[in-house]
Amino acid sequence: MVFRIHFTAEDLARTRVADAPMPLVELKQAARALQDRRQPARLSGWRRHSLARLSAEARLALDFIPPAGWSPTFIGAPQSGAPEELIEQVRATPASQIRTALTTILPHNSTMGVPPLTCHLTDPAFLDRLCDGLSVLYEVLLGPYWPAIVDAFTADRAVRMRQVLHGGVEQLLSQANPHGMRWNAPVLEIPTPGDSNDYDLHLEGRGLLLVPSMMLARPVIHYDAEPQPAVTYPASFDSPLRRLTAFAPAAAPARTAAPVAALLGHTRAGVLTAIAEHPGCSTKELAHFTQLAPSSASEHATVLREAGLITTVRYRNTALHSPSQLGLNLLNHTSDGPLGH
Questions:
Q1: How much is the pLDDT for 247?
Q2: Which neighbouring-strand residues pair with 231?
Q3: Angstrom distances, CA of residue 281 to CA of 41, 160, 219, 249
Q4: Span 113-122, average pLDDT
Q5: β-strand 230-234 against 220-222: which pairing, if any?
Q6: What pLDDT, on the 0 to 100 scale, is given for residue 83?
Q7: Is there a contact between 25 and 141 (Cβ–Cβ < 8 Å)?
Q8: 42-63 mean pLDDT
Q9: Which residue of 21, 61, 129, 168 has the fewest CB atoms within a 10 Å radius of its CB?
């Protein structure tokens, strides 16, 4: 049916887009996609490659992240940070917190396929095994593709920031994912396929955190997230090619030395630096930052994009440029200023 999120004026003022991808959210969705044969064919190679590399602990972790249904919320909290640190936070979850969560969920979900081993989650040794499995899952399912996921997140966020600038938070809510979320002021309505109940969440001044996700096919509501509820939604829904190629194993090696060599030089290095300092900037803004003609700024951006050092998305009639992880790494590992002279 429908999950309705109710906003006040204070909630609109406190609604924001996440600053960075959230590894455990992406990991939980990747684990679901790994097991869901209904996922698009674009994931077939990724699925075969990943399944062959899972340890016993990783398969144990999969038991708690089924293709659909209940999964412990504390293993997929919407938080940004290093995956290793976030998994250690899961490992340190107090048994009392786990018991409270299980007491709340289990009596009402007897038909949702709760794993038989759920009762062992409060055992520190068992939780250690589960967290070891989460670490392996991340290394196998997401680690090789994380730069592409970060690039897609950054590009999507640049578009959402433009929406806020041009039409405020209400435009953001109405356009972030119009296929999966409907803004009917002052309520954000999110269909919940397969659920016969309607739900209402009153934000009560906390606002909402919006989190672009590469793995999601439809929005997911984290109603109990702290310090504010969150909604993860499919990133780049309007750029399907980005989603189709993100999990291609050959994507990273395809960055050959020839196009990167073409970047050497003061002007183009300055363009890359300007984009890194102003992610999501338009070509007109880029020209202003670098004191170049718009046509020249556009040409340099094209070379940078073909070399994989920036990503470009379109918002209305405007091209928005953001640095890729490859571009940032190149800048960060250059000792004598940006890319040489």
A1: 61
A2: 210, 221
A3: 34, 12, 27, 29
A4: 78
A5: antiparallel
A6: 93
A7: no
A8: 87
A9: 168
